[in-house]
Design goal:
The structure holds two protein chains of two kinds. By secondary structure, chain A is mainly alpha-helical. Chain A contains four helices and two strands. Chain A is 59% helix and 4% strand. In chain A, strand 1 and strand 2 form a beta hairpin. The chains are: A mainly alpha, B alpha/beta.
Chain lengths: 94, 282
Amino acid sequence: MSERIGVLSKDEVLEKLKDVLATGFGLRGEQVVPTARLVEDLDLDSLDSFDLVVRLEQETGEEIKEDDLKSIQTIQDIVDVIHRKLESRESRQV
Amino acid sequence: MVGRSLPSTAAALRERVSHWWRVFRAGLAFGVFGVGALVIGLVVVPILRLIPGPRRGKEIRTQTLVHLGFRTFVWFMEGLGLIRVSRIGTERLRRKGPYVVIANHPTLIDAVLLLACMPQADCVAKKAAWNNAFLRWAVRGAGYIPNDEGEALINGCATRLGEGRCLLLFPEGTRSPMGQLGRFRRGAARVALKTGCDVVPVVITCDPPFLVKGQKWHQLPDRRVCITLTVEEPIVSKDYANRHENVAMGARRMTASIRALYEQSLGYARVHTPEVEERARR
């Protein structure tokens, strides 16, 4: 069951993330599972991570800070960070 | 019984003497390297820097000096019977830049062997070299690029290529694990795509393994080491600069193709990608 917050649920964030990783890095949808590790499983290097952050910031309109990046190891970590940011924006707007 | 053990004792003694003789020669070679690096760094580089002119000229003069020093060192190691170097197509590395030279990294002395073939080459020096008492002066004088992370490193490399210089990179970033390739980073492909420069792959083989990662300088094989440097056909970066995809994707494709080329050349795996097949046809 999807957890719905504001306009996007975590499942929807994951789908958006799959799009970004497919168009930006050529990763196939089936590779982008919540447990996939960015470096070991998806072979994203430091420059890719930088590009990914820029793309996610453009997509979400939210700044991703260095502290957020420290906690990111897997796809699920990214989904959680994005979801938390969207949730916080939603609560600010309310 | 006694008759049998005597020859084997003599053989063991011969082997031991031979081992220590090799260790002595290797120690002599590395000692000469250290003293030479200090003399070059503390005496010759400062003198060269006194010659008036722009930074670029001073760096290139120092790089030429490093090239000549390494050529002498390789010749010295060959003369001592420690290594035998076969060079296939290395005359291509004497061409003027800009281009990127890449290589696998089976031994500690790969950079020395390649810089000995390249009259001018910038390279990325790891932090250990910047702080090494013997190397730091030459590394700084030659304007080598610090091994920073991310965009700073790419920009440093692109600037050198933009000045028409040659750049030497090891895509694995460190020495290869014995008998295999490490993970290939995409920095070389990104630099090539950013600048439009071609990539010249050099395949290095070393038999028996010598100065591999984790091995001490005195842990030497029991025979002369045969090292082969084979310069392959350049990889044209424009082939990977597809207007329908971004640099990250182009760099992935290019790096996969480069890795496949190395796997094929070294016989580590049978790899068939459209790019490798096309290159094989050409």
